[in-house]
Amino acid sequence: MLFLCLPQNFGTGSNYSVSVNGVTLPSSTVVYVNATMMTFVAPRGIGSNIPISLVVATLPSTYTAPALSYIPPSISVVSGCAADVSPRALDCSILGQVITVAGSNFGNTSSALSVSVNSVSCTGPTITVADSQLTCMLQANPYGGFLLNVNVSVGGQSSGQPYLSFLGPVISPLTLTLGALPQSSTGSVVLTSDPLVTGSNVQVAFSGRNFGLNASAITVYVGPAGQPTLYTCAVNPSTLVSSGGSAGASNISCFFGGGIGLNMLFTVQVGYLVSPVGTDTLTTIRPYIIPGTLRETQSPPGATDYTGRYSSGDLVFFDVQHLGTLPLQITVTYSSAANPSIQQCTGVTLYPLSNGNTTIRCLTQTGSGAGYHFTVTVVNYASLPGTDTYNYAVPPTISSVYGCNNVGNGTTGCSTLGGQVITVTGTGYGSTAFVRIGSSTCTIISTSESVLTCTAPAGSGLLQAVTVVRELLFSQSAYLFSYATATITSVSGCTDSGSSTANCPRTGSTVVTIQGSNFGPPTPIVLIGGSPCSPVVQDATSPSTKLTCTLSSGSQASLSVMLIQAGGPQTTGSVTLSYAQCAAGSYSVGTDIACTLCSNGTFQDVAGQQSCKPCPDGSFSAGPGNIACTQCQQATYSLSNGVGATTCTSCAQGTYNSLPGQATCTSCPAVRIIAHARGLLVVACVVCCSSFACVLCVPRVRVASAM
């Protein structure tokens, strides 16, 4: 029954109708109705999200209720094949056959059904019992399959179960034995001999069904989990005895011809049909490392304790039994009690021996330590660790380096020319050891187990690595040797003065000479005021004390001269280099190479300046490149205004200057005189001015004057 809660009062009369998926229901299906709720019996159906609608004759619109969904189909049993075991159909024909599927909610409309097996359509699905049972026809499947998914889809809803297996080979558990059947089995067989050594294949047998009787169509595989078809086991045709019916033999035996593996599983293929992997296991004889065979060459004899020659890794050889027939499935590892982490011995190569054993060759990793034991793993079966021990060669050690200025356990200040006798102390030197200082060889003078003497090579740099090499064994580098720091005593090539040089052309390309000591090989770097001076060419006869380099362009004065040894520190001497400075009357800014003449109104009276100065008040400069300004004459003046004057200005009428070099002109004073002069009355008389001075006007001049 379904209950509809109505959104408004529809009344209680009979003027209504209910439809599901567009089909109007008989009024007899309505069980109860009031103003706000209706109860009715849902019709038979399938699917989900099916619309329900209610129409009331007295109302203008239709009420649509929430969608209706039927319960999805469910599968409980699949049957109809030759060896059904509920709920599964087993041994279904690969040629196709009718199967029966039982369950619920299948509906009663065959056309709405869709059935598939492992995503392959099962044709002609037909409802045989409404809602609960259907049949369909399996399509032919030459490859078969086990526990395949049967899927039923009705009205857009579906469900599935892994309930169908085609007729095909199946291996029964707890049936694997050595030799032929019948005999009891524990489900596990462990071989005690190696067919590759004895020359005799091992017969094993197991039971099952659907193996057929054609030995040429049957292949038996055996391998570890993840590699179930690694080896083949040759079928013994004489053991294929029919168990009746069409299924063929129920017992099968095969000859295992060799191979190595732990807990290997069997698979049977008949034609295209492949059985599920069986559960019974076969374990072969374990790989075995033969004691006393560890050595450094392919040819015996070996030893129970072997010390290699190189800390970078050794080629080692040893003999092994029971390696099988798959060289690419063989790995070799080694470890020790002190270093239990597993190390890989790479580049495994096999050399079969006439006695059935095999010599293995492999390369150990770079390492150190002693007491390592090898393990050989074939496929998934590892030997016990061998009893022979492998030891890395012990490299030389360094405890001190002496010979120049000894400080602590090292030495410093050694000449970059080399030639000093250096003494190195430590362990493990022997008669073949030699010494490297940096990347150069220190020529051996004498050797013993713990002391080496040698002649230092030419070089440069602080804390150079000292390494002792014996054969291909390298000591840890000891940074106990330092060459002397370079010194600079002079630079020359321009206008030389004492240890420095000046007036070098600003455009560069000038070759300068630097002298000092311990410049050293290889070629050092020279910086002038931080800029490279290159190329650097060391003197052919005195490379450690004299060199030349080519200046780049520049403009500054008193630049420091710096030398950096290759691999060594920088050295700054007290010597300096100066580029030619701009002359008085000109200037340059920053790193500008060209000099610029001072412009009109400015001057520069000092060489090597970065700007010009404006002419002061009362002076001027009329052309470029002035080293001084010209003073304004009497009756003229000038103002600088911070930029300098380019000319002097004459005093205006009524003003005057009686002195040179003035910034302004002076206004003439006005006077009032009443007097008789030569019979003339001078009513007003003023001081009369030229540009140079003021004097009394003559009486005949009458000039109106403000009183």
Q: What report would you give on this structure?
A:
There is one protein chain. With 707 residues, this protein is an all-beta fold. The chain has seven domains: 2-68; 81-166, Immunoglobulin-like; 170-283, Immunoglobulin-like (Sandwich), CATH 2.60.40; 288-391, Immunoglobulin-like (Sandwich); 398-483, Immunoglobulin-like (Sandwich); 487-579, Immunoglobulin-like (Sandwich), CATH 2.60.40.10; 668-707, no CATH class. Strands 17, 18, 19, 20, 21, 22, 23, 24, 25 and 26 form a ten-stranded mixed sheet that branches. Strands 36, 37, 38, 39, 40, 41, 42, 43, 44 and 45 form a ten-stranded mixed sheet that branches. A seven-stranded antiparallel sheet has the order 27-29-32-31-30-33-34, with no helix packed on it. The longest helix is centred in the N-terminal third of the chain and has 4 residues, at 195-198.
Task: Report a brief summary of the structure.
This protein has 707 residues and is mainly β.
Defining key terms:
mainly beta, Immunoglobulin-like, ten-stranded mixed beta sheet, flat
Number of domains: 7
Query: Mind telling me the CATH superfamily name of the largest domain?
Result: Immunoglobulins
Biggest sheet overview? 10 strands, mixed
Summed over residues and divided by their number, the pLDDT gives a mean of 86
Strand content: 35-45%
CATH topology of the largest domain: Immunoglobulin-like
CATH top level class name of the largest domain: Mainly Beta
Number of beta-strand segments: 69
CATH architecture of the largest domain: Sandwich
- Distance from N terminus to C terminus (CA atoms, Å) equals 132 Å
User: What does the radius of gyration come to?
Assistant: 56 Å
Helix/strand-derived class? mainly beta
Choose one word for the global shape. Answer: flat
Figure out the total of helices. Answer: 1
Helix content: under 10%
Unreliable stretches, pLDDT < 50, 5 or more residues?
671-686, 698-707
